[in-house]
Amino acid sequence: MNGQPISGAAVRTGRRRGRTALPALAMGALLLLVSACGGGSDRPAGAGKKAEDAGKVGTAASQAVVTVAPKDGAKAVATSGTLKVTADRGRLTEVAVKDDKGNAVEGRIAAGGASWEPLQHLASATKYRVHAVAEDAEGRESAKDTTFTTLVPKNTFIGHYTPENGSTVGVGMPVSINFTRGITDPEAVEKAIKVTAEPSVPIEGHWFGNDRLDFRPEKYWAAGTKVTVRLNLDGVEGRPGVYGKQAKTVSFTIGRSQVSTVDAKAHTMKVVRDGELIKTIPITAGAPSTTTYNGQMVISEKYKVTRMNGATVGFGGEYDIKDVPHAMRLSTSGTFMHGNYWASRGTFGSANVSHGCVGLRDVRGAYDSGTPAAWMFNNSIIGDVVVVKNSKDKQIAPDNGLNGWNMPWAEWIG
């Protein structure tokens, strides 16, 4: 009887061992499998650390810091010298500055991307939006968006320009701009005015005093040239506390070439159009005591009939003619080419009797289209050139009318 319990105990013990042996073998296989998938001795050193670092790069903030001056929301900001964008611990990759109408401000990112500055002044009384992006050494980006508003000027100036927008003018027509206030920063004003031509030709500006700026090429314009003038004066500080308020584009076309040469000694004028002599006209020039200027002169105004009073040009009461026909202005000081009905027919082509003007035979009332003066008037346009030679007078001053052609190119650009 004692043997049965011992035998039963042995069976139970064997069954337990049998049940626990299979899980042990399975665990061993599982350990081998885990060891194989984990890499064991084949796992690269530091692989786990790199994976961890990669996760940090993907979620870490950019170290680049963008700074915009003026500060966000600033008012009455100066139109020049204030706007600047910089990047610390990184480099700028994008800067966009626009006004409320979407007009972009041209600018340049410095080499290395540390800063950005505008290449032009800003307009006055205008709200601007700045969007800037920088990236750090790891390529992570940060951005900044701000707004500011420029000052409202108390004192302003504009430029009165010639020729008129859309006009067709002669080959001698310069771009001439007269400012309503004397300019003390001519460089800033001239930089804000761009004159271009098609076909392209070098065009340079020249200041006469502090309130007039003319532009021209070295030689007369080529016939058919298209000229565009961009006045970006809005916001330009032309003198302390005085700002421009113009933003305008003007264009005009150069017509056929016509250059007429007056020989005061021979009492004739030869009209050359597109290189061909088309007419020779008898004239009378200035009398010995009131000679006509020599030089290249540009027709700046045309009047079918006008009044000429000697008192307005320094001749006192020597003449006051209320109906001078077919008059074309050649100088600011009062030089005209005009019709003359009061001199005898024989005067033209033989004598100089005028007060400095170039006279052509005409009739009172300007009704006869067959007179030399009428022909010249009808065949001339603003900007045509009239050259006077062989007069016993000095050369006309370049700023006396639109007559900058009398200044050598080297002096003009100097």
From TrEMBL:
<keyword id="KW-0732">Signal</keyword>
<keyword id="KW-0472">Membrane</keyword>
<dbReference type="GO" id="GO:0008360">
    <property type="term" value="P:regulation of cell shape"/>
</dbReference>
<keyword id="KW-0573">Peptidoglycan synthesis</keyword>
<dbReference type="Pfam" id="PF17964">
    <property type="entry name" value="Big_10"/>
</dbReference>
<dbReference type="InterPro" id="IPR005490">
    <property type="entry name" value="LD_TPept_cat_dom"/>
</dbReference>
<dbReference type="Pfam" id="PF03734">
    <property type="entry name" value="YkuD"/>
</dbReference>
<keyword id="KW-0808">Transferase</keyword>
<protein>
    <recommendedName>
        <fullName>L,D-TPase catalytic domain-containing protein</fullName>
    </recommendedName>
</protein>
<feature type="active site" description="Proton donor/acceptor">
    <location>
        <position position="338"/>
    </location>
</feature>
<keyword id="KW-0449">Lipoprotein</keyword>
<dbReference type="InterPro" id="IPR038063">
    <property type="entry name" value="Transpep_catalytic_dom"/>
</dbReference>
<keyword id="KW-0012">Acyltransferase</keyword>
<dbReference type="GO" id="GO:0005576">
    <property type="term" value="C:extracellular region"/>
</dbReference>
<feature type="domain" description="L,D-TPase catalytic">
    <location>
        <begin position="258"/>
        <end position="389"/>
    </location>
</feature>
<feature type="active site" description="Nucleophile">
    <location>
        <position position="357"/>
    </location>
</feature>
<keyword id="KW-0961">Cell wall biogenesis/degradation</keyword>
<keyword id="KW-0564">Palmitate</keyword>
<dbReference type="InterPro" id="IPR050979">
    <property type="entry name" value="LD-transpeptidase"/>
</dbReference>
<keyword id="KW-1003">Cell membrane</keyword>
<dbReference type="InterPro" id="IPR041280">
    <property type="entry name" value="Big_10"/>
</dbReference>
<dbReference type="GO" id="GO:0071555">
    <property type="term" value="P:cell wall organization"/>
</dbReference>
<comment type="pathway">
    <text>Cell wall biogenesis; peptidoglycan biosynthesis.</text>
</comment>
<dbReference type="GO" id="GO:0071972">
    <property type="term" value="F:peptidoglycan L,D-transpeptidase activity"/>
</dbReference>
<dbReference type="GO" id="GO:0018104">
    <property type="term" value="P:peptidoglycan-protein cross-linking"/>
</dbReference>
<dbReference type="GO" id="GO:0016746">
    <property type="term" value="F:acyltransferase activity"/>
</dbReference>
<comment type="pathway">
    <text>Glycan biosynthesis.</text>
</comment>
<keyword id="KW-0133">Cell shape</keyword>
